Amino acid sequence: MSARPSGYQKFKDEEAFVSNRQEKAVDVSAGVLGKGAGAADFPIDQIPPNFELAELHREAWNVGTTKLSKRQKRNLQKHQKTQSNNIENDMIGKICDCCARQVPNHLLSLGCNNRDYSFLGAGMPLYFEYIKSCILMLLIIFVTSGDYNIITNIAFGKSCQVLNKELQGQDIDEKQFCQLSWATQTSLANKRNGDQFIDLQQMLNLISMITLILLFQYFRKEQRAFDAEIDSQTQYASDFTILLKNIPTDPTGLQNGDFDEDLKTFMEQYVQTYPKLPEIVDYEQERKQYQIQSKKPVTDLRRVVSVNLCYNLDEQYQLEQQKQQKIVQKQKILSSLYSQGKEPLSQEVQNDPQLVSIDAEISAIESKLEELEKKFIEGQDVKNYFLGQAFVTFQWENDAQSILNEHKLSKFQRLIGKKSKLIYRGVPLIVEEPPEPTDVFWENLHISTKQKILRRLFGYTITAIILAICGGLIYWLSAIQAESAEEQAEAIKNGDLKPNIKVKIIAQVASISIIVINALLAMIIKNVSQFERFSTQTGYNISLASKSSLAQFINTAVITFAISTWVTKNIYGAGGLVYNQSQVFVLNAIIPAVVSLIDASTISKWLFQYLEKKKGNKSVKTQKQLHELYERPAFDISVAYATILKNMYVVAFYASVIPLALIITCFALLLHYWVEKFNIARRRSIKYNYSSQMSIEMIEQLELVLPIYCGTNLWWEYAFLGSISTEAIIGICLGIGNAILPMHEINEAVFPMQSEIDEHLPIQEAEAGFLTDYCRENPATAETARQQYKIRVEKHKQQKQNMDKMFGDA
Fold first, then answer.
1. Sheet-wide strand order for 241-245
2. Are 179 and 574 in contact (CB under 8 A)?
3. Residue 471 CB partners (closer than 8 Å, separation 6+)
4. If we measure between CA atoms, which residue out of 685, 757, 775, 637 comes closest to residue 237?
5. Which residue, 465, 702, 731, 736, has most beta carbons within 10 Å?
6. What is the pLDDT of residue 81?
7. Per-residue exposure over 241-278, b if at least 16 CB sit within 10 Å of its own CB, e if not
8. d(Cα 689, Cα 684) in Å, to the nearest integer?
9. Torsions phi, psi of 386, nearest 5?
10. Would you say 220 and 130 are in contact if contact means Cβ atoms under 8 Å apart?
C-alpha cells in the first residue's frame, strides 16, 4: 500500500501519457539567427522569424489543461500505434520556450461545466456564475412585479392614443401627447392616470426589493462555497506562497550581502517550528528509501523552495525600450534591402555595414540586460533596486497556510497599529496572501501610494470630461429630435396624420450613437486605468470594470434621463424618453452580441498572419513580434464585467417605467453568456489567473442595482401621481442600507466556511499543473527561470517514474 499523498495515483496515470508525448515533443529548431537574452534557448529577436515556433506558441496559449481526458488517452494510444497524427496533436505536450507554457492536452468545449474553468483561477468560473445570477435577478424582478406591470399597462392603460381623425386639426402638445406604439403601450406611461394600479405596483416593487436582498445573501454564500470547493480541488502557485512586505532594504548584516538567500535561510529555520503532517512524513520516508535503494545521496526536502524578490524594473525597461528602438531601425534597413531585390540570409545582407553596426549596438544592450538579470538572480548588490517585498514559496501548501493563519493581519488591524510577530532582522514583516503570478504588475510595484492617488484623481477628472462631451452630443441629438416632434404636432394641426419618419430615424441614430459612445468610453477608460499604475491585474480590472460600467450607465441612462426630464421635458411624447430608451434596449441586446460573434479582432489577426506568412524569409518581424501576431486575442474580464454591470444598472433604472426591458436584458445577457463561452473555447487566449476577489467586488458593485431600482420607482411615482407612497420610501431605505452595510462580512459571519486541502503534494509534483509561477513571471528572473523550468519538470518526471517502478505503482 503506497504511503503517498491522496491523488498520487491519478497524477501518475496521467503523467505516464504526458511523458510518452514529451519524448516525441522535440523542440522546433530555431536556426542560428537567434541573438540576445536567452538566445541559446529561444531566439526572441530573430529576424526572419520561425513560423513553426509561432504556431507552437499559439497552441500553448489555447484555453485548456495539461491533463488528459480518457478520450484523449485512447486517441493518443491509437495515434502511437498507427504513426499518424495531425499538426495540432503533434504539438500536444510540447513546451513553448519563450513563455514556458505547455500545449494543453484537453481543450474546453462550448458546453463545458463552469467548474472546468477553475484551472484559470476561481474568478473564471465565478464570472459565468455571475452572469447566471444576473439573469436570475431579472427573472425574479419580472415575476414579482414586472409581469404585473406589463399586463396592466397593456390591458388597462388608456393614457396613450393612436393618431386618428379625431385629432385632425387639433392643437396638441407634442411633449404631452403619448402616441400609442409597442414601446409606449407596454410602458408605465400608458397607465400614468391609473392610481390604483400604481399603488399596487409599488407594493410589488417592495416585495421584489426584499426578495433581491435575500437573493444577494444566497449569491454570496454560493460564491464563497464555490470558491472554497475550487480552492480545495485545484492547486495554484499562490497556494504554496506567501507575500512578505516591509523587508529591510539595507544590506548591512546580510550573509554575503545576499538578500534572497538570507531571507530563505531565515524562513527555512522559522518554518521548522511547525509540525509536519503525517502524509508529508510518509512521503519523505518513501523518498529516502528510494534514494538509499538507488544509491543516491540522502537529502532532505527543503521546506522553503524559493524566494523571489521584487525590484524596481525601470532600468530594465529603459534598456528594453532602447533595444526595441534599434530593432525598429534594423527592420527598416532590412525592408529597404529586400525592396532592392536582395535575398534574405545572403552574404550581401548579413554583411551590410548598417546592419552590422546595429547588431553590435543591440548586443551591447543585451549584455547590459544579462548583467542586470544576473544581479537580480543572485540577489547581491541590489540595494538600489530591491523594494522590500518578496514572494516566498514553500515545498508544502500546509506550511504557507500555517504562516498566513498565524501572522496575516487585516487592514483594520494594521490601521490601529498592530504588528506581525514574524520578526526579521529586527523588523516586523507584513504577511499577506499573494496575488497569482500573472496577476502582478511587476513594473508598477515601485510606484508610491501618493503617486497612485494623484494618477487616479487625474483619471477620474478625464472620465468626467469625457462624460460631459458625451452629454453634449446626446443633448444635440435630443434637440434635433424635439424639433422633429414639433414639426409633427404642427402637421397634425394642419390635418396631416402621417407619422413623422424623421423622429423614428433620429431615435435609431441616437440609440446607435449611445452604443458607439459606450464602446469609445470603454477604450478611453481602459487607457486611463492603465495610466493609474495598479500593482495587480485584479486591482486594475476592478477599477476598470467599476469606472467603465458607471460611465456607460451615466451615458446610457442618466444623461438621457436628465435631458428628457429637465431640458426637452419630453418623457412619453413623440421622440421622448420612453420611445428612445426602448430602442436603446433592443439594439443594445443585439448589436454587442453580433459584433462579438463576428469578432473583427480575430478576423484581422487571421488576415495579417496570412499576409506575414506569405513573406516567408522576407518577413522583418522579430520572433517575439510574430508570436504576438499569432496569439489569439486576449480575453478581457474587466470589459466583460463592465458590460454586464452597465446592463444591470440601466435596466434597474428603467424597469419600473419600461418593464419590457427586463425581458430584453435577460435575452441580452443570455446571448452574452453563450457568445463568451464560444469565444473562449475557440478564439481567445487567457493570460491571467483570475482570483475570486474580482467576483466578490463585482457582487458589491451589483448591489447598487437595489438603490437605483428603488430610487427610480420613487421618482416615477412622484412624476406621474405627484405623491410618494410609504412602500417606495421603505424600499429606498432598504436599498441604500444594503449598499452601505458590509454585507460580505455579514455573510461570512452568518455562513462560516473554510477551505480544506484535499491532497498534500510537494510543489515539484503540483507545479506540473501550474500555468506558471512567480519566478517565470517576474521580468527580473523570467529568462533564467523559464530555461530552468523545462529541465526541472523533465528531471522530476523521470525521477517519479523510477519511484513508481521501485514501489510497484508503475
1. 304-311, 386-394, 241-245, 430-432
2. yes
3. 555, 559, 563
4. 775
5. 731
6. 46
7. bbbbebbbeebeebeebbbbbbbbebbbebbeeeebee
8. 14
9. -65, 130
10. no
Residue ranges in the chain whose pLDDT is less than 70: 1-42, 66-93, 163-176, 194-195, 478, 481-504, 506-508, 510-511, 574-575, 755-759, 768-769, 790, 792-810
CB 649 within 8 A of CB 588: no
Q: Tell me, what DSSP letter sits at residue 179?
A: B
Alpha carbons 191 and 354: distance in angstroms, whole number: 80
For residue 19, count CB atoms less than 10 angstroms from its CB and return exposed for 0-12, middle for 13-18, buried for 19 or more: middle
**CB-neighbour burial class of residue 673 (10 A; exposed 0-12, middle 13-18, buried 19+):** middle
| Helix (H) or strand (E) run with residue 387 in it | strand 386-394
Place of cell 460564491: 223
CA nearest to 565, candidates 557, 577, 554, 551: 577
Rounded distance between C-alpha atoms, residue 469 and residue 73, angstroms: 58
**The one-letter amino acid at 143:** V
In angstroms and rounded to an integer, the radius of gyration of the C-alpha atoms of the chain is: 31
Peptide bond into 48 cis (omega under 30): yes
Q: Residues with Cβ < 8 Å from 603, sequence gap 6 or more?
A: none
What's the grid cell of residue 621? 518581424
Query: Taking a C-beta distance cutoff of 8 angstroms, is the pair 570, 485 a contact?
Result: yes
Q: Which helix (H) or strand (E) holds 140?
A: helix 123-141
Residue 797 is predicted with a pLDDT of 63
Helix (H, G, I), strand (E, B) or coil at 773: coil
Give the Cα separation of 712 and 413 in Å (integer): 39
Asked if 68 contacts 76 with a C-beta cutoff of 8 angstroms, the reply is: yes
Grid-cell match 496575488, residue found = 435
Task: Quote the cell numbers at residue 141.
Answer: 424582478
On the 0-12 / 13-18 / 19+ scale of CB atoms within 10 A, 227 is: buried
Q: 673, 110 in Cβ contact below 8 A?
A: no
DSSP state for residue 142 in the 8-state scheme:
I
Burial (0-12, 13-18, 19+ Cβ within 10 Å), 164: exposed
The Cα 564–Cα 570 span in angstroms is: 5
- Helix ranges (DSSP H) in 166-313: 182-185, 195-233, 259-271, 278-293
Per DSSP (E only), the strands in 552-698 are none
SS3 of 388, please?
strand
Q: How far apart are CA 438 and CA 547, in angstroms?
A: 23
Q: Give the three cell numbers for residue 810.
A: 508503475
pLDDT of the residue at 672? 93
CA 91 – CA 28 distance, rounded (Å):
10
* Cα-Cα end-to-end distance for the chain: 13
